[in-house]
Amino acid sequence: MTEAVHTRRVFSGIKPSGGLTLGNYLGAIKRFVDMQSADFETIYCVVDMHAITVWQDPAALRHATRELVAAYVASGIDPEQSVLFNQSQVSAHAELGWVFNCVARVGWMNRMTQFKDKAGKNAEAVSLGLYAYPSLMAADILTYHATHVPVGEDQKQHVELTRDIAAKFNHDFKVPDFFPQPEPIIDGPATRVMNLRDGSKKMSKSGASDMERINLTDDAALIVKKFKKAKSDSEPLPDSVEGLKDRPEARNLVEIYAALDNSTPEAVIAEYAGAQWGRFKPALADLAVARLEPITNEMSRLMQDPAEIDRILAKGADKANAIAQPILDKTYDIIGFVRR
Ligand code: AMP
Ligand code: TRP
């Protein structure tokens, strides 16, 4: 129903909070690239305001913001075709985020599993922003009336909360179709890339050991070494995908291969059924190097011209603002804020 009144618009974002991993690339960036097409208007954001929910050194934040833009562009996001910008340059995000703080209920926020994981036993000492973060994420999406949100599995609950916030706003203010119900797009073989040393944990930039993740800045030798040392098990590869069921490490490596190869776990198993790790791991490492090395090289080339990156962001922010501001204005009118 909402599809009828809203265009097909994609919004997604990544935090500039330190190095990018293969999980970010396969679970997010690569899929953002794949969605750039005539079917969608695509808006991709460097969510710097989300990053500061935990402490960021200012110089490091500036560097990580530019590096993430370089990663987007090096991976194939075209700043002419997509809107590419950083969140803090478009004030509608913060403004609508405040409105949504007044729409979302504390009970809803208390159910967010990522907050519970991140806050851990320290819930009294984390920032208020970390707690409110999903309502800012709802504002990111809804200030563009975005309909499609490609994310990794870990963000599904936040997109569902966004739908609840949209529905409550529309209901409370009697504007049934104003905010759309955005769809989380969680597809492909790598929506949850796991840690290379422990297949039960997500690959993340903050994990303790560097050997458990592939960073987008790793060189070829290091990528090969990390896959060689990756945890596997004592069995050869099975002859069907079902055979991966209770083998989290094996499954993860097969899924990484499939995602890098634009193929499927079924196709990978068809090719490597019965193979020993001594054959599969070097093949996987070669594939990863072939796919990642051009991106890494292009990222370092782009990073040599930070002024150019800042120009891309400024242009993107103007384009983003042109979409977001009229929607924010309309929201303020609906709420009853007096405007000039
Ligand atoms: P973050 O780095 O937390 O800002 O995440 C940015 C995007 O990358 C989100 O869409 C995440 O779901 C995705 N992502 C992060 N880590 C992984 C992973 N290990 N596997 C798949 N997707 C991931
Ligand atoms: N919360 C997301 C993450 O941690 C990042 C994010 C912020 C986002 N705003 C968004 C993702 C809007 C999709 C849409 O990964």
Helices and strands, with pairings:
Blueprint: H1 2-5, E1 9-14, H2 22-35, E2 41-46, H3 48-51, H4 58-75, E3 83-86, H5 92-101, H6 106-109, H7 113-119, H8 128-142, E4 148-150, H9 156-172, E5 183-185, H10 220-229, H11 248-260, H12 265-272, H13 277-303, H14 306-335
Parallel strand pairs: 1-2, 2-3, 4-5
Helix pairs in contact: 4-13, 5-8, 5-14, 8-9, 10-13, 11-12, 11-13
* Assigned CATH superfamily of the largest domain: HUPs
Bound molecules: adenosine monophosphate, tryptophan
| Largest sheet strand order | 1-2-3
Oligomerization: single chain
| Coarse shape | globular
Rg over C-alpha atoms, rounded to the nearest angstrom: 21 Å
State the helicity in percent bands: 40-55%
Strand count, sense and barrel status of the largest sheet are:
3 strands, parallel
In CATH, what is the class of the largest domain?
Alpha Beta
Number of helices: 14
**Secondary-structure element series:** HEHEHHEHHHHEHEHHHHH
Could you please say which CATH topology of the largest domain applies here? Rossmann fold
* Name of the CATH architecture of the largest domain: 3-Layer(aba) Sandwich
**Any idea how many domains?**
2
Unreliable sequence segments:
none
Strand content: 5-15%
Average pLDDT metric: 95
Question: Can you describe what's shown?
Answer:
The protein has helices at residues 2-5, 22-35, 48-51, 58-75, 92-101, 106-109, 113-119, 128-142, 156-172, 220-229, 248-260, 265-272, 277-303, 306-335, and strands at 9-14, 41-46, 83-86, 148-150, 183-185. It starts with a helix and ends in a 5-residue tail after the last helix. It folds into 2 domains: 9-191 and 305-335, HUPs (Rossmann fold); 210-301, Tyrosyl-Transfer RNA Synthetase (Orthogonal Bundle). It is built from 14 helices and 5 strands. The protein is globular and about 70 Å long. The model has no long low-confidence stretch (mean pLDDT 95). Strand 1, helix 2 (22-35) and strand 2 (41-46) form a beta-alpha-beta unit. Tryptophan (TRP) binds at residues 11-13, 15, 47, 50, 137, 140-141, 149, 151, 155, 158.
